[in-house]
TrEMBL record:
GO cellular component: 6-phosphofructokinase complex
Cofactor: Mg(2+)
Catalyzed reactions: beta-D-fructose 6-phosphate + ATP = beta-D-fructose 1,6-bisphosphate + ADP + H(+)
Activity regulation info: Allosterically activated by ADP and other diphosphonucleosides, and allosterically inhibited by phosphoenolpyruvate.
Binding-site residues, ADP: R21, A22, A23, V24, R25, R155, G186, A187, E188, K214, S215, S216
Positions of the catalytic residues: D128 (proton acceptor)
Protein name: ATP-dependent 6-phosphofructokinase
Every Phosphofructokinase domain range: 3-278
Species of provenance: Parapedobacter indicus
Keywords (A to Z) from UniProt: Allosteric enzyme, ATP-binding, Cytoplasm, Glycolysis, Kinase, Magnesium, Metal-binding, Nucleotide-binding, Transferase
Binding site for substrate: T126, I127, D128, R163, M170, G171, R172, E223, K247, H253, L254, Q255, R256
Pathway where it operates: Carbohydrate degradation; glycolysis; D-glyceraldehyde 3-phosphate and glycerone phosphate from D-glucose: step 3/4
SUPFAM superfamilies listed in its UniProt record: Phosphofructokinase
Binding site residues for Mg(2+): D103
Amino acid sequence: ISKVGIFTSGGDAPGMNACIRAAVRTALHAGKSVIGIYHGYQGMIDADFQEMNSRSVSNIIQLGGTILKTARCDAFRTPEGRKQAYDNLKMAGIDGLIAIGGDGTFTGAEVLSREHNIPTVCIPGTIDNDLYGSDFTLGYDTATNTVIEAIDKIRDTAASHDRLFFVEVMGRDSGCIALNAGIAGGAEAILLPEKSTAIANLCNQLESAAKSKKSSTIVIVAEGEENGGAYNVAKEVKSRFDFYDTKVTILGHLQRGGSPSSFDRVLASRLGFAAIRHLLAGETRVMVGLRGNEIKTTPLEEVLNKKVFKLSEDMLEMMDVLSI
Ligand code: F6P
């Protein structure tokens, strides 16, 4: 491999820039050229490329978002789109790829690499923490901290007014942010995509909270849970149990931004560094991830096919015990 192409794709996540920096500098240190591919797979199809040097990644370790931009790209789902992308990579002399993103990004990388035989190593970057093969994904720690900060602020006003708040957090299929931020923020209840919660049970819980003279109540609702999000849950609860003055806050995309935490910066640097080392050592169609405190590779096929359940049983049990 002499020229490495690097790109980010799908939802951005804090730590992507720190990861780009590490990968670019590790490749340059090994005497390789690096090309930044802008706007993910769309940029591959449009040949939106730019050569990178070590100054291209100066002063970005602390920045949220991704300097390489990102996009979701339908054209890449077709063989014609991928052929166009590969022709552009070939024309630019790119003979190895580093992809940073989530499962959609990895699906594209797996197919492109297999169809056109281009060595590819993937890095888990998504706030959802929903990938098999890595205990943590880039951006998850920062996003969880952002949510806790928001819950703390909501708690101040909720307690002052004796109110019930439903706070919706991201996680289409994953309750990692909801469970961890809920526990760290002392939430009274947490609704998760992985676990069903009957509204009647939630109402019972809220009723006992009211009887035990709680001055505020916060329910964390993961966006992908079965009752259809915080507004619906609030409406359902209100129709059965109208004791509290009720408010809804949707945290939305603010969870995706912000300066990465120290944990995410170090993880990003380790993953970027390891990804280049594995690519140059001849590995392909693998994801680098953190397992225990070690960086390990997992075949992309396994990452994409194995189901993840990252919610610890003790935490699920503790959630109910600690909220009385
Ligand atoms: O994949 C991360 C994620 O933040 C999900 O939790 C959320 O549902 C989705 O992205 C939102 O994506 P978009 O930015 O396309 O609205």
